[in-house]
Amino acid sequence: MKNKKPSELPKNPSGKNTRKIIYCLGAALLVLAVTFCVHMSGINKDVPVGGPADTEEAADSPHTPTPVTEYIRMSELASDAETTESSGLPDDTDAGQTAAITAPANPYSDLSVPTWLTKVKDTYFLVDCYHNQVVYNDNLTDPLNEWKVMTDDIDKGHTLASDGSVYLIDDTERNRILIFEKENDVFVHTQTFNEIGDRPHYIIYDAPTDTFYAWSSMSGEMFLFRHNPGDTRMYLTQIRRIEQLDNVYVRSFTIIGSDIYFVSGNSSIIRADLESFEILETYPVPDSMAGMIQLTKIQDYFYITVSTDITGSQDYATILRTGNLSALISGDYEDIYSQFIGGGTPYYITEFDNAYYLTEHRLPGHSVWRFQVENNMIKDVETIY
């Protein structure tokens, strides 16, 4: 018997019906599977980061922080007494009773070596270093004695950083990092990290890495802190080091993209890889600007505040800018301090409210400046405190 072509095979009505049933069942199962996947996807959106919903894409996104799974140590929770003392609250305030408490007013009408001005949400924070306090206010026009005290339990603190949830302050001379949280319009000291290097001097929050970076100014160590989404408990996750900066006074660092810059007291600027801290390049500088404070990139220029020369003399305090860090050693830079009167000691520059702010000391009545930069031209320079 010859093999017949498919079209010549005997017809089987029952087989045709069976195929229809199979096709219908398959389609129904496909719809159910798609529905189930969509449903589970919707559920997974609510799963905390670090649960089964994590994906590689989410982990790489700066807006979807990965969970803290490994760490060196967690913060120490502040006792009721520590919370009361560090937050400047009345001595008889118990934890959880801040609803009816208001923060104390700033007892000073002037500033003593201000170092840092920043804004978090709708609140301005000013670190008044030699008054050993951090004050805050909702505007930059009120007299200083109308600002409120966030804490006066620090010894020569320099900076404050926040991700909007927690607020970290370096307590420089006590080698501590204090963590505050806002409760009923009062900032409460809730956690502490003790034994953080040697004089922690500069702390920032880096949103792309979802990490707080705190620099130990005398030991060449960087302490990295994080917390989990929806949980304010802080963790020390890493300690990175630059051996060449051990026992060298380094007042700050600057993160630009995947690089981190250190203005160091050994007459050079170091550019390193942010992830590995491997030194990529070293830029020597003249002895006259050896005591640098901070490097800030503004448009096409690097702005560098200088406190002293290599001998420690503040007579060399100034603000310089250059478009090429390699050219500093040959004197290829511009001194712009005359646009801020000059004669004092400029410190840190910050940016918010579409303007730049400079803290300064040694000039009575000229402690905080505001200025604009437009097409690399400095303009609208004014003293606000």
Name the strands of the widest sheet in spatial order.
1-14-13-12-11
Cα shape: globular
- Count of strand segments: 26
Question: In the CATH classification, which architecture of the largest domain applies?
Answer: 6 Propeller
Low-confidence stretches: 1-62
- Helices and strands: which structural class? mainly beta
CATH homologous superfamily title of the largest domain: TolB, C-terminal domain
Indicate how many domains the architecture comprises.
2
Treating each run of at least 4 consecutive H or I residues as one helix, how many helices?
3
What's the level 1 CATH class of the largest domain?
A: Mainly Beta
Q: How would you characterize the overall build of this protein?
A:
- There is one protein chain.
- With 385 residues, the protein is mainly beta.
- The longest helix is centred in the first third of the chain and has 32 residues, at 13-44.
- It is globular.
- It has two domains: 13-60; 73-383, 6 Propeller (Neuraminidase).
- The protein has helices at residues 13-44, 56-60, 80-86, and strands at 73-74, 76-77, 114-120, 123-128, 133-137, 148-151, 160-162, 167-171, 176-183, 186-193, 200-206, 211-216, 221-227, 234-241, 250-256, 259-264, 268-273, 279-284, 291-298, 301-308, 318-322, 334-335, 345-352, 355-361, 368-374, 377-383.
- Residues 1-62 have low confidence and may be disordered.
